[in-house]
Amino acid sequence: MSNTAKDILIPSSTSTFRITFLYVGQGDCTLLTIPDNGAFKYVLIDTNRDKEAGGIDIKKMLSDLLDDGLDVFINTHPHKDHLVGIKEIHSSTPIGEVWHSGHVPGKDHDEAYQEMKEVIKDIGDENEYFLFGTNSENKVRKSKEDSSGVTKKLGDIDYIVLSPAKYVTDDVDNEDADTRYKRIHERCGVIKYYYGDPTPVNIMVTGDSDKTAWKEHITEYHKEKLPSEVLRSSHHGSRSFFKDSKDDEDVYEDHIEEISPSHIVVSAPKQSESKHDHPHDDAIELYKNHLDDEDNLYHLGKNRESVIVDIYSDGKYDVKFDKDLVEKYGFDDDDGGNSGKLASGPAIIGGSTTVLDRKPSGRK
């Protein structure tokens, strides 16, 4: 039966790879609708429940979307704004596998982390995988001690996990609790997904990875793997991607020069709604400096919309903008959400569409 989630999140062609950067307020959540031999696999990267900023209720959205459960949940790192709601999602839309960084967070984030551990206990250790920074495609670890990794395909697409490397995982695990807490973004998952023939289109998902992670562990080692048409900005548009602090004069830009994105997606509410003042103004200016067209920087909270990227099997892609998911599934001011209210008009992917052929372009 058709509904808003299915109409918007499922492509009309089973050969289309659809990436939806969902508006969840102060947090991050990306849904991959992956072509899989004439059907689709569904992968959710991070999740959050931000009622104050009117974010999408991911549990209700997935309940409408999925008849047979969620294939994979990937957690880039166990901070609340990337993990809250995972247990509720699993209770209504069973999760098949959990992939995560293996980091143990501090007490402020322990409740959400324990919920993820409960989900893993329910699905069994055989369905738990650890992110594996490597130059080999389609690989994750079966355990934190695993040095070679295992091949795990995700339907018809390919991916490379760029972070965390095993030596970073081992190093951070040997630190005391306070130091380990501070290094969580250094150990954050960074994954590039790509699809299309003869020349694939690349999507870079960065979690909250920071300047140290890129400068010390990612950029030089993975330089040839970094170019990506679409970049999901790190840490909700925080300056931590470029700087150690607001006054840091050693601004790091080697990573984004190598990524060389045509489009950048910022997952954050309006700055006035963010307790961390995300996105940071200085970071936004730095991101814009690396775009041929600054209109190709899409701040989800600015218009409370989601951004959808469709990659086709021939290596072409397009970018669309959708408000209907927020209208249908967004939390309202009373925390009740709009889930019982039909979206106005038929479900349409955005009112503004840019069709691209591997060329940078702004909204038309």
Short description:
The chain is of the alpha/beta class and 364 residues long. The chain is built from 11 helices and 17 strands. It has a 9-stranded mixed beta sheet with strand order 6-5-4-3-2-1-15-16-17. A 6-stranded mixed beta sheet has the order 9-10-11-12-13-14.
Task: Walk me through what this model shows.
Helix 2 packs parallel to helix 3 (86-92). The model is unreliable at 336-364 (pLDDT under 50). This protein has eleven helices and 17 strands. The protein has helices at 4-9, 58-65, 86-92, 110-123, 166-173, 177-182, 211-218, 254-259, 281-289, 300-303, 324-329, and strands at 17-21, 30-36, 39-45, 70-75, 95-100, 128-130, 139-140, 150-151, 158-163, 190-195, 201-205, 230-232, 263-266, 297-299, 306-311, 317-322, 353-356. The strands form three sheets. A nine-stranded mixed β-sheet has the order 6-5-4-3-2-1-15-16-17. 23% of the residues lie in helices and 22% in strands. Helix 4 links the parallel strand 5 (95-100) and strand 6 (128-130).
Distance linking N and C termini:
33 Å
Low-confidence stretches: 336-364
Helix- and strand-based class?
alpha/beta
Dominant shape: globular
Mean pLDDT: 90
Largest sheet: 9 strands, mixed
Instruction: Give the helix tally.
Output: 11
Question: Cα-atom Rg, whole angstroms?
Answer: 19 Å
Strand content: 15-25%
Helix and strand sequence: HEEEHEHEHEEEEHHEEHEHEHEHEEHE
Q: Helical amount among residues, as a percent range?
A: 10-25%
Strand order of the largest sheet: 6-5-4-3-2-1-15-16-17
User: What's the count of strands?
Assistant: 17
